[in-house]
Amino acid sequence: MKIELVDAHDIGVAVRAARKAQRLRQDDAAGSIGVSESFLGKVEKGAESVHWGKLFQVLEGLGVRVSVDIPDAAGELFASEEIKRRVRVERAEKRKAVREKLDE
């Protein structure tokens, strides 16, 4: 089912619904996903200041997929920016691996 998300509260409603559909208590869901119950509670309440990485961890853990509908004109730019981001991540991972070897 696709729903339009307008603000953080909409994400919270979607997360709570996904958790309840799986008949999971908040503490059990949080534990299996690897976040605190307090964090999951903030997400479900639509708190506007949550950590993006943890939010996506919760969404993935509950099987919630997120997609973004961007204007067609932005599609090409998105693709090139994504390639640049991947290159930066790969370079950072290589630098980290070299530093770890030097530290051994």
UniProtKB/TrEMBL annotation:
HTH cro/C1-type domain location is: 15-70
A GO molecular function held by the record:
DNA binding
Q: Which InterPro entries match?
A: Cro/C1-type_HTH, Lambda_DNA-bd_dom_sf
Record SMART domains? HTH_XRE
Q: What is this protein called?
A: Helix-turn-helix domain-containing protein
Q: Which organism is it from?
A: Caballeronia humi
- Higher taxonomy: Bacteria, Pseudomonadati, Pseudomonadota, Betaproteobacteria, Burkholderiales
